[in-house]
C-alpha cells in the first residue's frame, strides 16, 4: 500500500495543524494505522495509532491531550489533529499502516514536515 501524507507546515507555538493520510486504492489494508515522527538528528518515534474501524486510539505520552488521531471511513482518510503545538513537536511526520505496538509498521508514507516556531 502506498500512503500519502499531507497537511504539514509552519506554525507558531500554541497553534494547530491537521495532517491527513490517504492510501492508493482507497483501503489501507491494515488493522492498525497511525503516525510516527522523526525530529532532526533523532530516531523515528511513535505518535498515535488506532484500529481501522476508528476504535482504541493510543498515544505517546508526549502528545496525550493535545493530539487526536481519527479516521473518516467515508473517505478512507486518516487524520492527526494537533493542538497546542510546541517547538518540540517539530519533525517529519509519517503515516503508517500495519502497526504493531509502537515500533513496527508494514507500510510508510513519504512524510510531511511540521515546524513549530517559538
Report a brief summary of the structure:
The protein has 118 residues and is mainly beta. The protein has strands spanning 3-6, 9-12, 17-23, 32-38, 44-51, 58-59, 67-72, 77-82, 91-97, 107-108, 112-117.
Characterise this structure:
- The protein has strands at 3-6, 9-12, 17-23, 32-38, 44-51, 58-59, 67-72, 77-82, 91-97, 107-108, 112-117.
- The protein has 118 residues and is mostly beta strands.
- Strands 2, 4, 5, 6, 9, 10 and 11 form a 7-stranded mixed β-sheet that branches. A 4-stranded antiparallel β-sheet has the order 1-3-8-7, with no helix packed on it.
- Strand 5 and strand 6 (58-59) form a beta hairpin.
Structural class: mainly beta
Report the principal-axis shape: globular
Distance between the termini: 36 Å
Task: Let me know the average pLDDT.
Answer: 95
Instruction: Give the uncertain stretches in residue-range form.
Output: none
- Main sheet: strands, sense, barrel: 7 strands, mixed
How much of the polypeptide forms β-strand, as a percent range?
over 45%
Please give the number of β-strands.
Answer: 11
Helix-residue proportion: under 10%
* Element-level helix/strand string: EEEEEEEEEEE
Tag the structure with descriptive keywords:
single chain; 118 residues; mainly beta; seven-stranded mixed beta sheet; four-stranded antiparallel beta sheet; 11 strands; 0% helix; globular
Question: Which helices and strands appear, and what pairs or packs with what?
Answer:
Layout: E1 3-6, E2 9-12, E3 17-23, E4 32-38, E5 44-51, E6 58-59, E7 67-72, E8 77-82, E9 91-97, E10 107-108, E11 112-117
Parallel strand pairs: 2-11
Antiparallel strand pairs: 1-3, 3-8, 4-5, 4-9, 5-6, 7-8, 9-10, 9-11
